[in-house]
Please model this.
Amino acid sequence: MESPTITASRSVSRRGEKRFHVEISKTGGGEVVAQGLPAWLSTLSAGPASARGPESASPQPPTRAAPNTAQTCRHLHSKVSQALRDGRVSATELCRKCIDQIQRTHYLNAFITITGETAMEQAQRADNRIRTGKPLGPLDGIPFSVKDNFCTENIKTTCASKMLKGYVPPFSATVVQKLLDQGAVLVGKTNLDEFAMGAGSTDGVFGPVRNPWSYTTLYREQSTEDPDSDWAISGGSSGGSAAAVAALSSFLALGSDTGGSTRNPGSLCGVVALKPTYGLLSRHGLIPLVNSMDVPGIMTRSVHDAATVLRILQGRDERDSTTVQAPSTPPSLPEHFDIRDICVGIPKEYHAPGLSTDTLAQWSRVAAMFEQAGARVQEVSLPHTQHSIVCYHVLCCCEVASNMARFDGLEYGHRSTIDSSTDAMYATTRHEGFNNVVRRRILSGNYFLLKSNYERYFVKAQQMRRLITEDLKNVFRSGIDVLLTPTTLSDAARYTDFIQEDNRTRSAQEDVFTQPVNMAGLPAVTVPTALSRRGLPISLQLIGQTLQDWKLLTVAHWMEQQVNFPMIHLHGDSDERKLDRSVRERTHTIGS
Amino acid sequence: VTFDQSNGLLLTKSLLWISCLALNCTINRKSLFDRKHYFYADMPAGYQITQQRVPIAVNGMLVYSHFEGRRRNQVVTKSVKIKQIQLEQDSGKSLHDDEQSQTLIDLNRAGVGLMELVMEPEMCCGEEAAAAVRELQLILQALGTCQANMAEGQLRVDANVSVHRPGEPLGVRTEVKNINSVRHLAKAIDYEIQRQMEVLQSAGKVLNETRAFDSKSGNTIPMRDKEGLQDYRFMPEPNLPPLFVYESKASVPAGVDPAQVVVIDRLSAQLPELPSVKRTRLVETYGILQEHSFTLVNEDGLMDYFENVVQTTKAEPRKVIGWVIKELMGNLNSQNLKVSQSPISPCALAELINLAESGHISSSTAKQVFQEMWKAPEKTVGQIVKEQDLWMINDKEELQKICRRIVDSHPEEVQIIRRGNKKVLNKLMGEVQRETKGRTDPVQVRAILEKMVS
Model:
């Protein structure tokens, strides 16, 4: 069992280990600290300490230049849904290509279940509708995949755990059903960390997910090792969904985001990943991790696509009492939008130890882009952020302990053969069914919830949660529209390096920039901006105000258009030309 | 208390609030939900959603009455405080198959919302508790919350019992479960009181435990060994936001549709006539005995039946009540029927009472006709009277003839009467009644007979 004394993660705390019992400061946090680009951001990125110093002063990528294709892709306006409607491509063709691509990239281990047969039937029906001029909407006939912790009717749902072996849900999660009702074609269920507990997609019963970018020419040329031993993690826990979108085997994918599980792999795999405002999307049918933080996440190849999907998925669901009425949203993101009306906050606490120079350089470059385009850029302070990860772990474990109690082997999933007593059956079922990550969190959570510990852990963490939320509210109240931060400390780690530390340590490092947003329920989106020296994606996160998801995406769309993030080219994919141009299309793939 | 869900969720919701209002509770404007954790096969989520911190309503009061005195007709009115009313999830039902040593679990009700009432320890015997629960059943039925049938689990009662000497604090309590009727509730409590007193008198200790009532033996037996103290690891339920209710339409905040929220004013206006009000009204309007008002209200449909008869007959309500309580209920009870299953309609009974009132049949004949009507509900009162020739003999000459015959055939009795023993006249009257199958007016017959023997 883990030590009951929670210590601050070393990547957050600057003074090393820190007791959990934090003095709660009376002074309000979250004020604007300085106008203009923070000195530390501009100094560091332009100074001699930076490896790519001279480059980063200009708006050009400080790292490797994007391949030429990116430039052309950005200006292509052939949209897949338009192509479908025009009859240039059929839904069945598109579906077959995606399934072929899943099989061609099976080494990524992104999928747990491939639903080829039912997908082709769905695609056939979409074609019939499109042919008769009655498409259901912009997603009709578009292939998508779903993280395997969303219930899907008549399709097994595993949470990458032995515990849910053989479980076939009798219903679909609301968000899945909404996509199906729009005619979107479900091609498969994607891999994850067991019960979404992890930040690498390395801790599931079906094995780790590999980052597609570690199979590009750029990465392989630098590697002296075998492709089977030297590859990067996808990030997690929604690594399968991120890899599926990045490897072009789905146009969109659903992930779940509790502490960063959509944004982290989205960032490491170079796709757009949106964590909407808590309550905007229904959690009904999403197998819970932390009910008070879980949100379904949207992963796409472009911000425009994410906006299209958000518009379809958002809104009240009577099966989820925490959902809210969606604010009215226009049919698409505004084409003309003046970035000079926007005020971008740079939280100084996010300049944390362990932040890679590549990532810092990107942060600096994009902040400068905003400033040069006329946006106001201000340094802000979120003083309680440093305590967020510790509190997040306490609350996460508590809800995990509670939510995992339903897996007792009686109603569904794995059941131990030991049946000497009901209690023995429970105990062995749960021991056999859960991996040690899940078991540890259950044990810790039950410890925190004991009557004698409740005040010291759960209540304290909730108080801190409120202060963290207040910090963010104050910043937005002071006139900030969006916050610009890194999504992760660095680009994706090599698998063999990543597994040197345990799941808890990695989660603490990986979730450091992402989980405060979950604590506060705010929307955030991560957008890939460039490739690192290793040829792996680096992304930045934009954080918006509650229910201002649309405004957030509008700014993200502007940013996406400025950064020139390159197209993926999988190494040795000699049949690249066979992939339809529309399948490879990055920007504006879906849309009306 | 479970809810009758046949009318959909919205109604179920309002039934909850109406129940709180009917029990004189203070409704919390904001209430919260909590999770209570424990591993038990009948709780499939591993926790129960309940209200540990801020329940739906608090500080209620249930007024109930029971009968005392030798003839049990002295009405005593008491009250018990309701500490709180909370909404929580029902569990499944374990069915133990001892032969095959397996447990089957019925999960049909698991997770469904139910209302729990917590009463203060203010009742002092099984009978009081039974009367309080009976009153609660009537209130819930009147509101339409549910039928409150204990045998079917619509209303379940766990009795917490402790004993203490006067002036001392409450003793260690036990919780008695598995009680499936009001009668068993009284029995279980009285048994438990006796058992605890015996334990203490023999210098033993009462354990804080859960016991089950065994209806066959009338005993309570230890139920489950709790393996030390349970830590339920309570935490706020993250999936259910706080529940808000509003005083009036005016207090509903802007942007919230008043039709979609609970407004107390609106619900208060929907409160139906409660049993206690009904009883008072019956006593005042019809001049009947208080104990009869209890019978009328306790039996489902009996009050309506009674009021129906009263409206269609000229007879005094005090006479009608006798018919309803003695004849009707007597027959219904002996055949285990409900009021709605009575073969005699209120109309038919009113007709019968009218015939007796107007002297067309004697009151003893009327009772006879009642039994005939019960057996042959398809026949009218008139048909039965005619077929069996039961009309009253009002012809003076005929009566004289019959009386003469009886006097003549009983010379000995006549002699005794003439010697001064007037009591024997009753025997002659009885003979006349037998001869005429009760179709005579006793007052008339007595007058004639007295004349004849004097």
Chain B touches chain A through 19 residues (CB under 8 Å). Residues 162 and 168 of chain B are 12 Å apart (CA to CA).
